[in-house]
Design a protein that fits this description.
The protein is mostly helical and 83 residues long. It is 76% helix and 0% strand. The protein starts with a helix and ends with a helix.
Length: 83
């Protein structure tokens, strides 16, 4: 998986969780303990978050980091098949 693919998946995942929880980006930042600006950059696909931020996202989602990356790899594989 490339950095771009991981960044795209994180953006998709953040937006999906936010929509599922019916939260604004600010509300998600408050609940996840990840700063608003960091979440905004992730959702807009601007830059790559640090491993600490990705780890904090995994913790917020209630999954181990390994599961988060496995899910990302599966998503990327599906996106490649679509194109």
């Amino acid at each position: 998986m490339t950095a771009k693919e991981l960044r795209n998946w994180l953006a998709w995942n953040v937006r999906g969780v936010r929509d599922h929880m019916h939260l604004t980006l600010r509300g998600l930042a408050d609940r996840s303990s990840i700063s608003f600006s960091t979440l905004a950059r992730i959702e807009r696909k601007r830059g790559m978050p640090t491993l600490d931020v990705i780890g904090a996202w995994a913790t917020f989602c209630g999954v181990p980091l390994s599961v988060l990356f496995r899910d990302a790899e599966r998503w990327v594989a599906k996106e490649v098949q679509k194109s």
